[in-house]
Design brief:
The complex is a heterotrimer, with two copies of chain A (about 190 residues) and one copy of chain B (about 270 residues). Chain A is an alpha+beta fold and about 190 residues long. Chain A has helices at about 5-15, 25-30, 40-50, 75-80, 90-105, 110-115, 120-130, 155-160, 175-180, 190-194, and strands spanning about 60-65, 65-70, 105-110, 135-140, 145-150. In chain A, the strands form two sheets. In chain A, strands 3-5-4 form a three-stranded antiparallel sheet. The longest helix of chain A is centred in the first third of the chain and has 14 residues, at about 5-15. Chain B has helices spanning about 35-45, 50-60, 70-85, 90-110, 125-145, 175-190, 200-215, 230-245, and strands at about 20, 25, 155, 220, 250-255, 260-265. Chain B has about 270 residues and is mainly alpha-helical. Helices cover about 45% and strands about 5% of the residues of chain B. Chain B starts with 17 loop residues before the first strand and ends with a strand. In chain B, a hairpin with a 6-residue loop joins strand 5 (about 250-255) and strand 6. Chain B has a three-stranded antiparallel sheet, with helices on one face. In chain B, strands 1-2 form a two-stranded antiparallel ribbon. Chain B has eight helices and six strands.
């Protein structure tokens, strides 16, 4: 297939699709055509399209489940004016639970509670599953066989990420001995005063 | 009573600034010197005992690795008492932490046998947990700051000429709808705070019909909402619907004088 | 405003909007900005965008109520395959939202969220409105004046109902469950037999 035509068809497909499209999915769409492009041709056309969208109001972004055409975040100010509704906000409890699942998966609810120091409401787990950000991965083979949770591709798609590696890095945990070898036991006399 | 903070003490701290259940309060930390309503919101903002402890530590610019356990325990207990006095529902975890702090404090007061090299600092476990919690608290903030759909990222909504392509719409049957309603109501009932009372649908439907017919700009005649052909029940349903809308401030009723015609208008 | 930037913002707006946008509407979106473009500037930018979309998978088409970005009809063959491949389904969240609107109308998004215990994404409300099953009825006179939603005549028609009264009551739904969890609702003969 002529490269110009393939690029145009792909552009039409990205414009029409309401989900990210992977190279495999795109390849399947051409099966049976007389001029069937190979995966390499498709990849090349995608890169050309991405280059074309380097400037302007849209970008062709690669997220976990494929490529999608999206509005460039820098124009959010104006785009938001098109709608009266505000984006949903999520509580700290929910974000902390989600962060723990993302960074520590597979993880059980009990383990999340241990780290957060408070119980996790069922509603939070439910919201996360309903948004399809989190899914049960199986059961941990300990008494009670608690469910192990992990994040989904939809989670990465939603947060505009290609893979878990793109998550912001965790702050370092410092070692007690290393940083405070002369650890003073008695709290500088204050403790003794009690 | 001694001032709570080593460097934050002032002569104000000796003055009872509030009576809580008849008891004068003199020892509230100074940064809590805020209206009670705000205080409530403030205390509820903590995500648990670790979060509260971290706050106490950060506020004094103390390194997590070197917690003055006695001072922090004391402050922590003061917050706990305050929460109890304000009758905030105190999660059990707060009390567990209080006893953990008390235990660490007492262990620290004991003279440490010089020979025992293996014994860990009693604070080690707490410090580990604080650091781990802080790590994920930060991670949650970082995650929240990422560009995401519906907020910074908007998907394109590019038209597909309808006459060319017939995009099938998902089909549902009434069964699915019923089971969705049953599930959501069952779930809501588990959380006692919410209630979904049964209300005759006909009233709800009539409310919608009324809302559709009226506007904020012009008045509609009250009498027009009653159709004698519907019989007594129909009239009652209309009447209840209008009362319900009035109660929810969705409509306004206007009458210029006694026995004058009543008019209905959308609120706002 | 710099012509490049204006063009990019307009492209972002056309890409995000689900309706055609007129020059007047676009002009209004910039009101209050420090760099507010005039209508002539907007017209000029639109023409430049149209020229840019002369080739490729999309076109910026002028229709009665304004301009819209649309997929070029000549790529219909491939775009249609996108849907042939995956018969769409509605999410649980959408079904529950629709059920609550049907049974509890007039209802605000916040009230739906209160009952469901989780936030409702804007997309769900949008999809339900696009499907013409749900419509805004007005605003509730509480802070924020949230929109009140109700179901439409099309909703009743879709389910072959004459009025909302024909929807089973909660008690009926539960009773039927007890006898037959796999109860088929549309099979009226069987229903009556229970």
């Amino acid at each position: 297939m002529d490269a110009d035509k393939l690029r145009s068809i792909l552009e039409a497909l990205f414009a029409a699709a309401d989900k990210p499209l992977s190279v495999n999915q795109l390849f399947e769409l051409f099966v049976g055509d007389i001029e069937q492009p190979g995966k390499d041709e498709i990849r090349k056309a995608i890169h050309e399209l991405q280059a074309r969208y380097e400037s302007g109001g849209m970008e062709l972004k690669q997220v976990a489940s494929g490529f999608r055409l999206q509005v460039r975040p820098e124009f959010e100010t104006w785009v938001a004016r098109l709608w009266e509704q505000k984006p949903p906000r999520y509580s700290r409890a929910l974000m902390e639970t989600l962060a723990l699942i993302a960074y520590r998966q597979p993880i059980t609810r009990g383990e999340i509670e241990d780290i957060r120091g408070v119980s996790v409401s069922s509603n939070i787990i439910k919201t996360l599953q309903e948004r399809e950000w989190v899914k049960p991965l199986g059961h941990k083979e300990v008494p009670g066989r608690p469910t192990l949770y992990g994040t989904t591709r939809e989670f990465l798609d939603y947060f505009n990420l290609k893979s878990l590696n793109q998550l912001p890095t965790l702050a370092e945990i410092r070692d007690l001995d290393q940083f405070n070898p002369e650890f003073e036991f008695d709290d500088s006399g204050e403790a003794a005063a009690q | 009573m001694e001032p709570v903070f080593a460097n934050g003490a002032s002569n104000q701290s000796e003055m009872p600034f509030a009576l809580v259940q008849g008891e004068p309060l003199t020892v509230i930390p100074q940064d809590l010197y805020i209206p009670p309503d705000a205080l409530l919101v403030f205390l509820e903002a903590f995500e648990g005992p670790l979060d509260l402890l971290l706050y106490l530590i950060k506020r004094q610019n103390i390194d997590v690795l070197n917690i003055p356990i006695a001072a922090i325990t004391k402050q922590y207990m003061e917050y706990i008492h305050l929460m109890e006095q304000l009758e905030l529902e105190l999660a059990a975890e707060y009390l567990v932490m209080a006893s953990m702090l008390a235990e660490i404090k007492s262990r620290m007061l004991l003279p440490r046998p010089v020979t025992d090299d293996d014994e860990e600092d009693p604070r080690a476990e707490l410090v580990r947990r604080l650091q781990e919690y802080e790590q994920f608290k930060q991670a949650a903030e970082d995650l929240d700051a990422l560009d995401r759909l519906e907020r910074e990222i908007h998907l394109t909504s590019i038209d597909i000429p309808k006459f060319e392509i017939d995009v099938p719409l998902p089909e549902i049957n009434i069964n699915d709808l019923m089971s969705a309603f049953r599930d959501v109501v069952n779930r809501a009932e588990q959380f006692a705070a919410h209630h979904v009372e049964r209300e005759p649908l006909s009233v709800r439907e009539r409310m919608v019909i009324v809302l559709e017919r009226i506007s904020a700009e012009e008045f509609s005649s009250f009498a027009d909402f009653f159709d004698p052909r519907e019989g007594r029940m129909g009239v009652v349903v209309s009447f209840i619907a209008i009362l319900e809308l009035l109660k929810e401030s969705l409509i306004e009723l206007v009458q210029s004088g006694p026995y004058a015609p009543i008019y209905v208008k959308a609120n706002g």
